[in-house]
Write a structure and sequence with these properties.
It holds the Pfam family Bac_luciferase. Keywords: Flavoprotein, FMN, Monooxygenase, Oxidoreductase. This is LLM class flavin-dependent oxidoreductase. InterPro entries: Luciferase-like_dom (IPR011251), Luciferase-like_sf (IPR036661), SsuD_RutA_monooxygenase (IPR050172). The radius of gyration is 20 Å and the shape is globular. The protein is built from 13 helices and 11 strands. α4 crosses α6 and α12 crosses α13. The protein has a single domain, classed as Alpha-Beta Barrel (TIM Barrel). It starts with 9 loop residues before the first helix and ends in a 10-residue tail after the last helix. It has an 8-stranded parallel barrel, surrounded by 8 helices. A hairpin with a 4-residue loop joins β5 and β6. By secondary structure, the protein is α/β, with parallel strands linked by helices. The longest helix is centred in the middle third of the chain and has 20 residues.
């Protein structure tokens, strides 16, 4: 095949010092709130946001994965488009951006994923990737009739899943493969993909999760306990050292970050308080915390309140709240701390991305963190 047909995959290939992705537009906004500005998550809005991000030279468009809502049936947190189908459609309406499907490896067979991801790779001409998650939400496992294994066992299963997926992706001949989780015979996946391997992301935070990310992924997401850039720098260094010592490889280290941008710091803080505190969805957040953190009920009340605030604000992501100048300054500090990229969420993706493009991106370009988007 003509090499000119295959496009760069920006999450891997971009030369920007600080890379950017949009996260979670395939659902109803990056927050747990009843605020009327919450993103609709419908297909037409997804297309507009994807095309805008593509035009701006943002490196990635990353889906969230959700098979069951938090709390009662019908809750908006379950209105999340399936990520592989979604990615194929996004790939067809964009030109340059990496299109990333979040895939729950505990729930979906690697043979299906290999074929679906290769299809996305062909549609996108080499821009496909996956954000791998091992799963944790019991109702989703119940939906699939799958056992929710212990934490470390889920990652062990993920290792075995990756062994099958990688072989299916790379092999041009039939093969047999047997490990603890899978026994495949005369296995092959067609059609053949364009990339030698899709870009892989992972957000494992525990020591076992960090090992999984370092072994299999090109991008690992860290979740610092302290937003101070000095604490972020220490955490980033730990992740890099893990990958170098255990697997002899270099990986990118990213953060998820929610953005609340207004003309002034005071206006941004007031807007954040309104959607997070005044109109926040406390019931859904408590369901999420209780399901995700087994010892949550024994936490100090203050820490529980902080955690609830963080999830309502933006799924526990890093806060970028303030004026365009505030946000650009904080992003610069994160870059200085060694962060390679940010996966961004907004309450309203269309309005948020437009403001970010108008007033934050030029500042990042002036600071030498990013180059202006190339025109085609």
């Amino acid at each position: 095949m003509d090499d000119d047909f295959i496009k760069p995959n920006p999450i891997r290939d971009s030369t920007n010092k600080l890379k950017l992705s949009v996260f979670g537009a395939n659902g109803k906004g990056g927050a747990f709130t009843f605020h009327p500005d919450r993103f609709s998550g419908d297909w037409d809005a997804n297309v507009r946001v994807a095309k805008k991000a593509d035009e701006l030279g943002i490196e990635g468009f990353v889906s969230a994965s959700r098979w069951r809502a938090f709390g009662r049936g019908g809750h908006y947190s379950g209105d999340v488009m399936e990520t592989l189908t979604w990615a194929g459609a996004i790939a067809a309406v964009t030109e340059r951006i990496s299109v990333i499907s979040t895939v729950a490896v505990s729930l979906i067979n690697p043979a299906f994923v290999a074929k679906a991801e290769a299809t996305i790779d062909l549609i996108s001409r080499g821009r496909a990737g996956m954000n791998l998650v091992c799963g944790w939400f019991q109702p989703e496992f119940d939906l699939f009739g799958v056992e929710l294994k212990e934490h470390s066992d889920r990652y062990a299963y993920g290792d075995q899943w990756m062994e099958v997926f990688d072989k299916l992706w790379s092999s041009t001949e039939e093969f047999d493969l047997h490990n603890e989780a899978f026994s495949v015979k005369d296995a092959i996946s067609q059609p053949r993909p364009l990339q030698s391997r899709p870009v892989l992301l992972n957000a494992g935070g525990s020591p076992r999760g960090r090992q999984f990310a370092a072994q299999h992924a090109e991008v690992a997401f860290t979740i610092p306990d302290d937003p101070d850039p000095r604490a972020v720098k220490e955490r980033v260094a730990e992740y890099r050292e893990d990958a170098r010592k255990k697997f002899g490889k270099e990986i990118q280290i990213w953060l998820s970050a929610y953005v609340v941008q207004e003309d002034t710091t005071a206006e941004a803080e007031a807007y954040a308080h309104d959607y997070i505190v005044t109109q926040g969805d406390d019931e859904a957040v408590m369901e999420m915390i209780t399901a995700n953190i087994p010892n949550s009920q024994t936490m100090p009340a203050g820490r529980m309140a902080e955690m609830a605030y963080e999830f309502k604000a933006g799924y526990g992501a890093y806060p970028l709240v303030g004026s365009a100048s505030d946000i650009a300054k904080r992003i610069g500090e994160l870059s200085d701390a060694g962060v390679d990229g940010l996966m961004l969420l907004w309450l309203d993706y269309e309005d948020g991305l437009a403001k970010f493009a108008a007033d934050v991106l030029p500042r990042l370009e002036e600071a030498g963190l990013r180059s202006p988007a190339a025109s085609e």
